[in-house]
Amino acid sequence: MSRPFDLTLYLVTDPRLVAERGLLATVEAAVKGGVTLVQLRDPDAHGRALVEQARALKALLAPLGIPLIVNDRVDVAVAADADGVHLGQDDMSPADARALLGPERILGLSVGNPAEFAGSSSGIDIGAVDYLGVGPVKATGTKKDAGAAIGAAGVAAVRALTRRPIVGIGGIDGALAGEVIRAGADGVAVVSAICAAPDPEHAARALLSAVTAAR
Ligand SMILES: Cc1ncc(COP(=O)(O)OP(=O)(O)O)c(N)n1
Ligand SMILES: Cc1ncsc1CCOP(=O)(O)O
Ligand SMILES: [Mg+2]
User: Which value does ipTM take for this structure?
Assistant: First the structure.
C-alpha cells in the first residue's frame, strides 16, 4: 500500500514560470498557501540536474509532511528518495514502474479522456496506480502536446468509470476549480495558476478556498 497523499491542491512546477522567483521559493510560498502535493516537472532537464532539484525539494517538503512526486522519471525519484512518480500514457508502464518503485511510493497516471481510461484499465496494470491525472480540462499553453480539452463533463465521465482518486489538470483557475470538484474530482492540479502568479501563496490560498467551497 502506498504512503498517504492528498490531491486537494496539487502543484506541478514549470522551470520557465518559476525562473524569476526560483523553484524553491515558489514551492515554499505555494505550500504556505495550502498546496497539499508537489510534482517536479521539467521535461527538458537532464538527470543530474533533476536529481539535485528533487533532493532540494524533498528537503523542503518532507518536514512539512507534503509528498514530492517526480514527473516521468522513475530513476530520478528513486535516486532522490522522492515519494512518487507521475507517468503519462507513453511513459514506462505502471506495472514496470511499480516493480522499480516498491509498494510504498505513490504512482500517478495521466488519463486524457474516458476512452483512454478504458484502454488503460484493460491493457496497462491500472491496479498499480494510486491516482489518475485527468485532462486537459481546458486548453492550456503550458503543455504544447496536451490532447483535446475535455471540460468538467469529461472529468465527470471518467469519475463514472472508476473509484480511484482523480485530480483534474489543464487550464484550471479559481473559477474552474470548483466545477472540476463538483464533477467528482478529488482535487485540482495546476501549473500556471500558481507558478505564474505574482503572489503564489495568495494564489494557492484562493484555489484552496475554491476547492473547499465546492466540496
Ligand atoms: C497530475 C498530472 N496529470 C497529468 C500530467 C501529464 O503527464 P503526461 O501526460 O505524461 O505529460 P508530461 O507532464 O510528462 O508532459 C502530469 N504531469 N501531472
Ligand atoms: C502537465 C499537464 N498535463 C495536462 S495539461 C498540463 C499542463 C497544465 O498547466 P496549466 O495548469 O498551466 O494549464
Ligand atoms: Mg509524462
Answer: 0.99
DSSP alpha helices (H): ranges in the chain? 23-32, 47-61, 74-79, 94-101, 114-122, 151-159, 174-182, 192-195, 200-214
Domain boundaries, the chain: 9-214
* 30 Cα–ligand 2 center, Å: 17
Architecture of domain 9-214: Alpha-Beta Barrel (3.20)
pLDDT of 157-166, one tens digit each?
A: 999 999 999 9
Residues of the chain with pLDDT under 70: 120-125
The pLDDT assigned to 119 comes to 77
- CA nearest ligand 2 atom 12, residue: 192
